Protein backbone atom coordinates (compact mmCIF):
# COMPACT_ATOMS: atom_id res chain seq x y z
CA UNK A 1 0.00 0.00 0.00
CA UNK A 2 1.42 3.44 -0.88
CA UNK A 3 2.34 5.63 2.07
CA UNK A 4 1.23 8.69 0.13
CA UNK A 5 -1.46 8.95 -2.52
CA UNK A 6 -4.07 11.28 -3.98
CA UNK A 7 -7.37 10.09 -5.37
CA UNK A 8 -9.42 12.27 -7.76
CA UNK A 9 -8.30 15.49 -6.07
CA UNK A 10 -9.66 18.84 -7.21
CA UNK A 11 -8.46 22.16 -5.85
CA UNK A 12 -9.53 25.65 -6.89
CA UNK A 13 -8.62 29.10 -5.66
CA UNK A 14 -11.65 31.19 -6.61
CA UNK A 15 -11.84 30.95 -10.40
CA UNK A 16 -8.40 29.34 -10.75
CA UNK A 17 -8.24 25.57 -11.03
CA UNK A 18 -4.98 24.52 -9.41
CA UNK A 19 -5.58 20.75 -9.50
CA UNK A 20 -7.98 19.00 -11.83
CA UNK A 21 -8.86 15.40 -10.96
CA UNK A 22 -5.39 14.40 -9.80
CA UNK A 23 -4.74 10.80 -8.78
CA UNK A 24 -1.29 9.50 -7.98
CA UNK A 25 0.39 6.82 -5.87
CA UNK A 26 3.85 7.91 -4.81
CA UNK A 27 6.24 4.93 -4.68
CA UNK A 28 7.27 4.01 -1.14
CA UNK A 29 10.84 4.62 0.00
CA UNK A 30 11.76 6.36 -3.25
CA UNK A 31 12.12 9.94 -4.41
CA UNK A 32 9.51 11.26 -6.86
CA UNK A 33 10.16 14.55 -8.64
CA UNK A 34 7.22 16.68 -9.73
CA UNK A 35 7.98 18.90 -12.69
CA UNK A 36 6.00 21.17 -14.97
CA UNK A 37 5.60 24.76 -16.07
CA UNK A 38 5.16 27.57 -13.57
CA UNK A 39 1.62 27.65 -12.18
CA UNK A 40 0.74 24.06 -13.16
CA UNK A 41 -0.12 23.13 -9.56
CA UNK A 42 3.06 21.53 -8.19
CA UNK A 43 3.20 23.41 -4.87
CA UNK A 44 -0.53 23.05 -4.34
CA UNK A 45 -0.19 19.28 -4.74
CA UNK A 46 2.63 19.19 -2.19
CA UNK A 47 0.70 21.29 0.34
CA UNK A 48 -2.24 18.92 0.04
CA UNK A 49 0.10 16.06 1.01
CA UNK A 50 0.58 17.35 4.55
CA UNK A 51 -2.78 19.01 5.01
CA UNK A 52 -1.56 22.61 4.58
CA UNK A 53 -4.31 22.74 1.94
CA UNK A 54 -7.54 20.77 1.82
CA UNK A 55 -8.97 19.43 -1.43
CA UNK A 56 -12.35 20.70 -2.64
CA UNK A 57 -13.11 17.11 -3.56
CA UNK A 58 -11.22 13.83 -3.65
CA UNK A 59 -8.97 12.35 -0.97
CA UNK A 60 -5.37 12.55 0.17
CA UNK A 61 -4.05 9.48 1.99
CA UNK A 62 -0.87 9.69 4.03
CA UNK A 63 0.49 6.89 6.19
CA UNK A 64 -2.72 4.92 5.99
CA UNK A 65 -5.00 7.82 6.91
CA UNK A 66 -7.40 9.98 4.95
CA UNK A 67 -6.10 13.44 5.86
CA UNK A 68 -9.64 14.83 5.95
CA UNK A 69 -10.36 12.54 8.92
CA UNK A 70 -6.89 12.43 10.48
CA UNK A 71 -5.38 14.22 13.46
CA UNK A 72 -3.16 16.47 11.32
CA UNK A 73 -0.77 17.43 14.11
CA UNK A 74 -0.05 13.75 14.72
CA UNK A 75 0.35 12.83 11.05
CA UNK A 76 2.57 15.85 10.34
CA UNK A 77 5.09 14.66 12.93
CA UNK A 78 5.81 11.82 10.51
CA UNK A 79 6.07 14.13 7.48
CA UNK A 80 9.16 16.28 6.97
CA UNK A 81 8.76 19.47 4.94
CA UNK A 82 11.51 21.66 3.52
CA UNK A 83 10.93 24.71 1.36
CA UNK A 84 12.82 27.19 -0.82
CA UNK A 85 15.08 29.52 1.14
CA UNK A 86 15.27 27.02 4.05
CA UNK A 87 12.39 28.52 6.11
CA UNK A 88 14.57 28.49 9.24
CA UNK A 89 13.40 30.51 12.25
CA UNK A 90 15.73 33.56 12.27
CA UNK A 91 15.77 33.97 16.06
CA UNK A 92 16.92 30.38 16.68
CA UNK A 93 20.40 28.94 16.18
CA UNK A 94 20.87 26.22 13.57
CA UNK A 95 20.89 23.60 16.33
CA UNK A 96 17.73 24.99 17.93
CA UNK A 97 16.01 24.96 14.53
CA UNK A 98 16.96 21.34 13.94
CA UNK A 99 15.92 20.04 17.35
CA UNK A 100 12.80 22.15 17.90
CA UNK A 101 10.28 19.43 17.06
CA UNK A 102 12.20 16.73 18.92
CA UNK A 103 12.13 18.90 22.04
CA UNK A 104 8.41 19.49 21.64
CA UNK A 105 8.08 15.71 21.35
CA UNK A 106 10.09 15.44 24.57
CA UNK A 107 12.79 13.24 23.13
CA UNK A 108 15.52 12.40 25.68
CA UNK A 109 18.50 14.78 25.37
CA UNK A 110 20.82 11.90 24.51
CA UNK A 111 18.60 10.78 21.60
CA UNK A 112 18.46 14.36 20.33
CA UNK A 113 22.23 14.64 20.46
CA UNK A 114 22.69 11.30 18.66
CA UNK A 115 20.23 12.25 15.93
CA UNK A 116 21.83 15.68 15.39
CA UNK A 117 25.19 14.03 15.14
CA UNK A 118 23.93 11.47 12.59
CA UNK A 119 22.21 14.11 10.46
CA UNK A 120 25.01 16.64 10.50
CA UNK A 121 27.46 13.92 9.46
CA UNK A 122 25.18 12.83 6.61
CA UNK A 123 24.54 16.42 5.50
CA UNK A 124 28.20 17.46 5.85
CA UNK A 125 27.40 20.20 8.36
CA UNK A 126 30.42 21.36 10.35
CA UNK A 127 29.36 21.11 14.04
CA UNK A 128 30.56 24.67 14.70
CA UNK A 129 27.87 25.98 12.33
CA UNK A 130 25.21 24.64 14.68
CA UNK A 131 25.71 27.51 17.11
CA UNK A 132 25.19 30.18 14.43
CA UNK A 133 21.97 31.95 13.58
CA UNK A 134 20.56 31.55 10.05
CA UNK A 135 21.77 34.99 8.91
CA UNK A 136 25.32 33.92 9.81
CA UNK A 137 25.14 30.96 7.40
CA UNK A 138 25.50 30.78 3.62
CA UNK A 139 22.48 29.80 1.51
CA UNK A 140 23.85 26.28 1.01
CA UNK A 141 24.56 25.87 4.73
CA UNK A 142 21.04 27.07 5.59
CA UNK A 143 19.63 24.58 3.11
CA UNK A 144 21.57 21.72 4.69
CA UNK A 145 20.29 22.76 8.13
CA UNK A 146 16.77 22.89 6.67
CA UNK A 147 17.15 19.30 5.43
CA UNK A 148 18.43 18.18 8.84
CA UNK A 149 15.43 19.84 10.47
CA UNK A 150 13.02 18.18 8.05
CA UNK A 151 14.59 14.77 8.77
CA UNK A 152 15.03 15.19 12.54
CA UNK A 153 12.01 13.12 13.57
CA UNK A 154 12.92 10.33 11.11
CA UNK A 155 9.91 11.10 8.93
CA UNK A 156 8.23 8.40 6.87
CA UNK A 157 7.44 11.02 4.21
CA UNK A 158 9.62 13.94 3.14
CA UNK A 159 8.14 16.82 1.10
CA UNK A 160 10.58 19.17 -0.61
CA UNK A 161 9.34 22.30 -2.37
CA UNK A 162 12.13 23.80 -4.49
CA UNK A 163 14.52 23.37 -1.57
CA UNK A 164 17.60 24.29 -3.60
CA UNK A 165 16.18 27.05 -5.78
CA UNK A 166 17.89 29.94 -3.99
CA UNK A 167 21.44 28.62 -4.08
CA UNK A 168 24.21 28.91 -6.64
CA UNK A 169 24.76 26.04 -9.11
CA UNK A 170 27.95 24.67 -7.55
CA UNK A 171 26.64 24.63 -3.98
CA UNK A 172 23.38 23.32 -5.33
CA UNK A 173 25.03 20.24 -6.81
CA UNK A 174 26.75 19.65 -3.49
CA UNK A 175 23.53 19.94 -1.44
CA UNK A 176 21.65 17.75 -3.93
CA UNK A 177 24.34 15.13 -3.41
CA UNK A 178 23.93 15.37 0.37
CA UNK A 179 20.20 14.81 -0.03
CA UNK A 180 20.90 11.66 -2.05
CA UNK A 181 23.28 10.43 0.61
CA UNK A 182 20.72 11.10 3.34
CA UNK A 183 17.94 9.31 1.47
CA UNK A 184 20.19 6.34 0.69
CA UNK A 185 20.99 6.07 4.39
CA UNK A 186 17.37 6.46 5.46
CA UNK A 187 14.99 5.39 2.66
CA UNK A 188 11.96 7.67 2.84
CA UNK A 189 8.95 8.31 0.61
CA UNK A 190 10.10 11.66 -0.74
CA UNK A 191 8.42 14.10 -3.12
CA UNK A 192 10.48 16.89 -4.66
CA UNK A 193 8.92 19.83 -6.50
CA UNK A 194 11.47 21.40 -8.81
CA UNK A 195 11.86 23.60 -11.89
CA UNK A 196 15.25 22.09 -12.55
CA UNK A 197 15.04 19.19 -15.00
CA UNK A 198 18.62 18.16 -14.33
CA UNK A 199 17.90 18.01 -10.59
CA UNK A 200 14.72 16.01 -11.20
CA UNK A 201 16.33 13.43 -13.44
CA UNK A 202 19.50 13.05 -11.41
CA UNK A 203 17.83 12.65 -8.01
CA UNK A 204 14.49 10.98 -8.63
CA UNK A 205 13.61 7.33 -9.13
CA UNK A 206 10.19 8.40 -10.39
CA UNK A 207 9.01 11.41 -12.37
CA UNK A 208 5.56 13.04 -12.39
CA UNK A 209 4.96 15.62 -15.12
CA UNK A 210 2.17 18.15 -14.57
CA UNK A 211 0.47 20.56 -16.94
CA UNK A 212 -2.41 22.93 -16.19
CA UNK A 213 -3.44 21.22 -12.96
CA UNK A 214 -3.27 17.67 -14.28
CA UNK A 215 -0.73 14.87 -14.17
CA UNK A 216 0.11 14.26 -17.82
CA UNK A 217 2.92 11.71 -17.51
CA UNK A 218 4.49 9.39 -14.97
CA UNK A 219 7.74 7.58 -15.63
CA UNK A 220 10.25 5.58 -13.63
CA UNK A 221 13.89 6.47 -14.11
CA UNK A 222 14.41 3.15 -15.87
CA UNK A 223 11.63 3.95 -18.35
CA UNK A 224 13.14 7.38 -19.03
CA UNK A 225 16.60 5.93 -19.60
CA UNK A 226 15.14 3.39 -22.02
CA UNK A 227 12.94 5.92 -23.86
CA UNK A 228 15.47 8.79 -24.09
CA UNK A 229 18.95 7.20 -24.02
CA UNK A 230 21.73 9.75 -23.57
CA UNK A 231 19.46 12.78 -24.00
CA UNK A 232 19.87 15.97 -21.99
CA UNK A 233 17.36 16.37 -19.11
CA UNK A 234 15.95 19.59 -20.62
CA UNK A 235 15.21 17.77 -23.90
CA UNK A 236 13.63 14.81 -22.11
CA UNK A 237 11.26 17.02 -20.13
CA UNK A 238 10.36 19.14 -23.13
CA UNK A 239 9.39 15.99 -25.04
CA UNK A 240 7.37 14.59 -22.14
CA UNK A 241 5.49 17.89 -21.81
CA UNK A 242 4.96 18.41 -25.54
CA UNK A 243 3.61 14.91 -26.04
CA UNK A 244 0.56 15.94 -24.00
CA UNK A 245 -1.57 13.83 -21.73
CA UNK A 246 -1.70 9.99 -21.76
N1 LIG B 1 -3.40 31.31 -2.61
C1 LIG B 1 -3.73 31.36 -3.90
N2 LIG B 1 -4.75 32.13 -4.33
C2 LIG B 1 -5.11 32.18 -5.63
N3 LIG B 1 -4.50 31.48 -6.60
C3 LIG B 1 -3.47 30.69 -6.23
C4 LIG B 1 -3.02 30.58 -4.87
N4 LIG B 1 -1.98 29.73 -4.82
C5 LIG B 1 -1.78 29.32 -6.08
N5 LIG B 1 -2.66 29.88 -6.92
C6 LIG B 1 -2.79 29.63 -8.37
O1 LIG B 1 -2.99 28.23 -8.54
C7 LIG B 1 -2.25 27.76 -9.64
C8 LIG B 1 -1.28 26.68 -9.17
O2 LIG B 1 -0.32 27.28 -8.30
P1 LIG B 1 0.91 26.48 -7.69
O3 LIG B 1 1.64 27.38 -6.79
O4 LIG B 1 0.42 25.21 -7.13
O5 LIG B 1 1.74 26.17 -9.03
P2 LIG B 1 3.28 25.76 -9.18
O6 LIG B 1 3.32 24.78 -10.29
O7 LIG B 1 3.85 25.34 -7.90
O8 LIG B 1 3.89 27.15 -9.66
P3 LIG B 1 5.43 27.65 -9.60
O9 LIG B 1 6.21 26.63 -10.37
O10 LIG B 1 5.38 28.97 -10.30
O11 LIG B 1 5.83 27.73 -8.16
C9 LIG B 1 -1.56 28.98 -10.27
O12 LIG B 1 -2.38 29.44 -11.30
C10 LIG B 1 -1.52 29.97 -9.13
O13 LIG B 1 -1.55 31.29 -9.61
UniProtKB/TrEMBL annotation:
Superkingdom of origin organism: Bacteria
Listed GO MF terms: ATP binding; ATP hydrolysis activity
The keyword Plastid appears for this protein: no
Keyword rRNA processing annotated: no
Lineage per the UniProt record: Bacteria, Pseudomonadati, Pseudomonadota, Gammaproteobacteria, Cellvibrionales
Protein name: ABC transporter ATP-binding protein
Keywords for this protein: ATP-binding, Nucleotide-binding, Transport
Pfam families with a match to the protein in the record: ABC_tran
PANTHER family for this protein: SPERMIDINE/PUTRESCINE IMPORT ATP-BINDING PROTEIN POTA, SPERMIDINE_PUTRESCINE IMPORT ATP-BINDING PROTEIN POTA
InterPro entries: AAA+_ATPase, ABC_SmlMolc_Importer, ABC_transporter-like_ATP-bd, ABC_transporter-like_CS, P-loop_NTPase
Residues in ABC transporter domain copies: 4-237
